[in-house]
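Re: weekly structure request thread

Next one in the queue (529 aa):
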Amino acid sequence: MLRSRFDPGAAHAVANREAMLGRLADIDALLARARLGGGARYVERHHARGKLLARERIELLCDPDAPFLELSPLAANGTEYEVGAAVVTGVGVVGDVECVVIAHDPTVRGGAANPYTLQKSLRALDIAAQNRLPVVNIVESGGADLPRQSEIFVPGGRMFRDLTRLSAAGIPTVALVFGNSTAGGAYVPGTCDYAVMVRQRAKVFLGGPPLVKVATGEDADDEELGGAEMHSRISGLSDHLATDEHDCLRAGREILAHLRWRKLGPGATEPADPPVHDPEELLGIASADHRIPFDAREVIARVVDGSRFDEFKPLYGSSLVTGWASVHGFPVAILANNGVLFSEESEKAAQFIQLANRIDTPLLFLQNTSGYMVGRAYEQGGIIKDGSKMINAVANSTVPAITVMIGGSFGAGNYGMCGRAYEPRFLFTWPNHRIAVMGPQQLAGVLSIVARAAAEARGQVYDEAADALMRQAVEGQIERESLALFATARLWDDGIIDPRDTRTVLGIALSACHSAEVRGARTYGVFRM
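Done, posted below.
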């Protein structure tokens, strides 16, 4: 069992906690905006029509008291689009089956898809495919946001490709249609295994009455072209005709319950007792300033079962903590940063990842690193080839990997610790997270040195005043672009989580991973020795 040296009453711990609570308050305010969708006016209008909101539909769809892990709730924050990107996605339990749920938010421009809507929906489908999770689409969308069609039309075809590939892989897909599903959106129910449509509400057609009139000269109303009755009785696109929204959700639950779905992973095999140390203390452990280190073992002690941790190579490569534990009964192999990555840490990580794959154990990465060490001695000592071993091991690992960014994520350290490009099954961040190619001061300094050298090469006098202004502007830009809110808005992660919820989030994510087979790699790329 891990011992703790953390003093929650220490001045730095109190300051960290206050800073974290402040960030969480900001995030809560943004989440409240996301839940309002298009705003109070449009929510009231939607309710006045006798319709449920996207999250209300999800709540009725999922099993009572079952968890729902919402993904990317702050997508598009800070852009011209509404926070949340007009769609709600997440992992929930429906009819005792863990599923990916994708629900259009019709209070935001009629549920029309903007570029962030598409990106968020495709990420949800990736999670479904990687983890072998059935998909439930809660459909009410006017299709693509037409003024943005140039950014949506071509990549948007992947949505229907992915749905059909899920079906081909034996992963069930369901469409519950509550309203419009027009133009390209009509292919959502068309490419799903099951389709349920609400009488007098669902409208599924490639072209509505105005377009048909212009294109063919034919006069036809909504029901004739794409009503739920027509698709249930004539076209055959609908498998079930629901009397109202509640009936549609009931039918969806019954479909999932009758799948006879079986998870292929071994599931939880260890005692799932809570940590000995209080997870509330995580608020004070994580540094408010990413430049100030903190011991990753203090985090592990408040996340894993019983605070038990069997550390691997504790005396070698000490700025990377590696070892075996379990979370909610699911065995995990943990890699956690305690600072910069040297050659020893890189070799230790590569070996540990191979061992985890050999015994089919999922990887949990806790990122807080400034990257791989630079400098003459380290370059000559082989930091590139050693770091490449670690990247090789991460890239070719096949056990499920989950990444939580608990601090800084800079340079190639992001890659070696299984950042977004290395396709972890899930990736979450804490509010204090920072991410960039390097720190703001370092990046501005590099640009300054390059500009100074260029001026000297041309025989010019370097403008120190302009250099100071440039450094200030660059530092400000990189500081803004490295924030957790900037990253999550662009779906570089699957959401910012409260540090106190880390264990719960990991439990849901690990359970979802075990829907698929958990099997490690037996081959790797060439390791440069």
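The mean pLDDT is 94. The CA atoms of residues 95 and 254 lie 7 Å apart.
Next request, please.
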